[in-house]
């Protein structure tokens, strides 16, 4: 049973302590139930299905971390290569960029010695099991340091995304971070909105396996059915509708009517009767589509990952405490800000970045998706105004659904707490003795370094455990070269751990010996029925016969369990808890119920496995896409090196030129180009995503690309036979890279739409060689 997916009912703080008998009895029963579900000695269909699911979850967790690291590399290289193209990157910076593309060599580098590893084991056990330290650290680091720390926290320290103990500890850390955010907030309106380390944390959390799985399961089908209608134009901005209208009239008649001038202001466009007639049915259709998205999201509430719902619950709880006068609408706008702004809407606006669709959607459906996201955001935020005046025309959607969205956002918060199960998870973790994380050397050293930087805030008293451990570790080693950044298995141990026996005693201190005997007997009988061939087929279960059969089989493990359980049944009978005369009816019923639960569990596991296989494929596809981007960068850097060696130390560009070690100003700017490409060429290479040029005119269309100064490009669109260009666009490489980083994959040249990553690749290919 996954305690993340099926949280226990909330209890008061006093009820969570293991003091009263009922709480203990529940915890111990759950402990035995979990043992029955995860019995490694049993080899039946359930056990095999569970092993497959565990392996799959492990793969998703590992792959998610790889993708996070790759995305960071791609973002870094985007910004650095912009400098390279502009010929203003120093040689040591170029080497740094090249090192970012190096693969890790497992034969290079060294491990810390055994003593240091033991100290790191103790430190990371403390960091993982006491999330308050990491919570404080996340608030103290700068925005530039947060990505590296988030990688360690989300994908290493709590990297097992489907393991309840790690998930619960991570959520405990979130509670601490959010609480501090509310304590330091100066005004209600700024809460959780700015781009801070905390907001980055929340967004990163939604990108973990369970969040990705939800988005694919809920949104993929609806988005794919929408983008099939490539020609469905639902533009409602009057200025754009007006422009499209007169362009169409001009194309059909060959002339522009004198009463329809170009470039009219918004109020003139929105007053035009024809524009109003075009927009009216579009508004109706947009509201219908947005409503279908809303219904799908509302109906998916039970599928929303527990952690995301629990964060919503904390936002509501903290807002009520900090701002007791806040209305329900205001509180729901904060919850909606997290759920829609940081989780749902990015996937609707750029579904290709979330691998929900293949390729970039066409122009019209892409615009429709943007409008849908704006409508959902306005609904969640309930603003009294719209940033764009034309969005006010969609206000009926907001008004009609206000109550419904509030109900949904409040329902999202209705999940149980996990403190009692976390306490039990911690005991189980102590007894497992195999707590372990996969961590790179640089993650180890970086976390060590950040803790030392902020140790006075994190651990002001030298008697605190964190201070004792960091004092023992001493200064943090410097970061190792990327090639030597090996991943190690770090086993986690506590320096101040109570013994396993003590932990179990604490858990079971007020459960009577008879209760303990009863539950252990039931647990062993369930294991035997699962292990003996065909035993599950004969109902009702003859428990005495099953124990006898196990005791006399040729399997040593079954013999041991069979003899033990026969003795236990006899003891329970002597204590008058069960009777052989009625076939141990009480025990029989409970064993049957447990096996029914396990049978249902197998069906759930098979369904979950099927769903997660799709998620794993998506994550792997995204990994391949990121790797192909890095390959492009490698090829580009190779070209730069070749060019540099041919020029023998001469750099062509604006600014200082170095020749033979002496600096001199260039006499003139070197203009590169023009380089000519036909419409058909760019269409074939996927650079033109969409074209408004009529088919019969396309053979006469060509593009010239010129670079008047490094990092600046002019793309001009020409028609054969005409002297002047029809259209010119001045591009800065930084702007293109910014668009790519923000997942804005299209460049609008009025007549054609270009794919930004492919335009970048073309510019690199053409101008890097020059």
TrEMBL record:
GO MF, one example: GTPase activator activity
Keyword Transmembrane helix: no
InterPro entries to which the protein is assigned, alphabetical: RasGAP_C, RasGAP_CS, RasGAP_dom, Rho_GTPase_activation_prot
Keywords: Coiled coil
Coiled-coil ranges from the UniProt annotation: 39-66
Highest taxon of the lineage: Eukaryota
One Pfam assignment: RasGAP
Polar residues: bias regions: 1-12
Region: Disordered, residue numbers: 1-20
Gene Ontology CC entries for this record: cell cortex
Start and end residues of each Ras-GAP domain: 165-381
Gene Ontology terms describing biological process: negative regulation of Ras protein signal transduction
Protein name per the record: Ras-GAP domain-containing protein
Organism: Serpula lacrymans var. lacrymans (strain S7.3) (Dry rot fungus)
């Amino acid at each position: 049973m996954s305690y993340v997916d099926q949280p226990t009912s909330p209890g008061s703080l006093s009820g969570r302590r293991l003091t009263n008998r009922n709480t203990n009895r529940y915890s111990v029963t759950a402990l035995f139930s979990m043992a029955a579900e995860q019995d490694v000695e049993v080899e039946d269909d359930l056990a095999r299905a569970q092993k497959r699911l565990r392996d799959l979850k492990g793969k998703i967790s590992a792959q998610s971390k790889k993708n996070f690291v790759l995305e960071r590399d791609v973002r870094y290289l985007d910004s650095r290569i912009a400098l390279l193209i502009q010929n203003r990157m120093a040689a040591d910076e170029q080497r740094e960029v090249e090192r970012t593309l190096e693969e890790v060599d497992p034969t290079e580098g060294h491990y810390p010695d055994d003593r240091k590893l033991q100290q790191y084991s103790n430190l990371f056990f403390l960091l993982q099991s006491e999330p308050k330290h990491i919570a404080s650290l996340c608030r103290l680091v700068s925005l530039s340091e947060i990505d590296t720390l988030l990688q360690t926290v989300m994908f290493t320290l709590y990297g097992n995304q489907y393991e309840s103990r790690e998930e619960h500890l991570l959520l405990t850390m979130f509670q601490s971070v959010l609480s501090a955010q509310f304590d330091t907030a100066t005004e209600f309106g700024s809460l959780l909105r700015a781009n801070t380390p905390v907001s980055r944390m929340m967004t990163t959390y939604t990108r973990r396996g369970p969040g990705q799985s939800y988005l694919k399961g809920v949104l993929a089908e609806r988005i794919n059915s929408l983008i099939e209608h490539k020609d469905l134009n639902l533009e409602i901005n009057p200025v754009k509708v007006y422009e499209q209208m007169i362009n169409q009239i001009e194309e059909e008649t060959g002339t522009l009517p004198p009463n329809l001038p170009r470039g009219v202001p918004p109020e003139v466009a929105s007053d035009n009767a024809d524009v109003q007639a075009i927009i009216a049915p579009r508004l109706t259709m947009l509201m219908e589509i947005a409503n279908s998205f809303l219904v799908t999201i509302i109906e998916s509430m039970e599928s929303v990952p527990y952690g995301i719902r629990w964060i919503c619950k904390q936002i509501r709880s903290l807002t009520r405490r900090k701002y007791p006068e806040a209305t329900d609408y205001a509180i729901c706008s904060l919850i909606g800000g997290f759920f829609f702004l940081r989780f749902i809407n990015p996937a609707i606006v750029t579904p290709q970045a979330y691998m929900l669709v293949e390729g970039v959607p066409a122009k019209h459906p892409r615009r429709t998706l943007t409008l849908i996201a704006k409508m959902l955001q306005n609904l969640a935020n309930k603003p009294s105004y719209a940033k764009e005046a034309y969005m006010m025309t969609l206000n009926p959607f907001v008004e009609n659904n206000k109550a419904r969205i509030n109900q949904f956002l409040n329902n999202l918060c209705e999940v149980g707490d996990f403190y009692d199960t976390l306490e039990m998870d911690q005991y189980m973790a102590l007894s497992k003795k195999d707590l372990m994380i996969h961590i790179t050397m640089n993650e180890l050293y970086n976390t060590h370094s950040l803790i030392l930087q902020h140790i006075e805030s994190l651990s002001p008293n030298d008697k605190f455990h964190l201070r004792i451990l960091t004092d023992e570790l001493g200064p943090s080693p410097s970061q190792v070269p990327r090639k030597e950044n090996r991943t190690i298995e770090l086993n986690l141990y506590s320096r101040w751990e109570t013994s396993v026996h003590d932990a179990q005693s604490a858990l079971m201190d007020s459960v009577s010996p008879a209760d303990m005997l009863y539950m252990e007997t039931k647990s062993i009988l369930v294991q035997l029925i699962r292990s003996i061939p065909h035993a599950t087929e004969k109902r009702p279960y003859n428990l005495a016969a099953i124990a006898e059969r196990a005791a006399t089989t040729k399997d040593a493990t079954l013999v041991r369990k069979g003899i033990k359980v026969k003795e236990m049944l006899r003891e329970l009978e002597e204590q008058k808890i069960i009777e052989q005369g009625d076939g141990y009816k009480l025990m029989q019923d409970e064993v049957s119920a447990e096996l029914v639960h396990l049978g249902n569990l197998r069906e759930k596991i098979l369904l979950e496995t099927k769903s997660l296989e799709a998620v794993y494929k998506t994550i792997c596809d995204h990994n391949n896409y990121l790797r192909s981007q890095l390959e492009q960068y490698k090829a580009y850097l190779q070209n730069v090196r070749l060019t540099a060696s041919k020029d023998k130390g001469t750099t062509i560009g604006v600014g200082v030129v170095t020749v033979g070690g002496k600096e001199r100003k260039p006499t003139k700017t070197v203009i590169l180009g023009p380089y000519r490409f036909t419409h058909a060429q760019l269409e074939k290479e996927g650079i033109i995503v969409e074209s408004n040029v009529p088919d019969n005119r396309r053979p006469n269309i060509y593009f010239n690309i010129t670079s008047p100064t490094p990092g600046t490009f002019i793309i001009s669109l020409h028609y054969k036979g005409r002297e002047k260009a029809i259209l010119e666009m001045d591009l800065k490489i930084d702007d293109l890279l910014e668009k790519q980083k923000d997942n804005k994959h299209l460049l609008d040249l009025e007549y054609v739409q270009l794919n930004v990553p492919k335009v970048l690749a073309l510019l690199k290919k053409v101008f890097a060689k020059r």
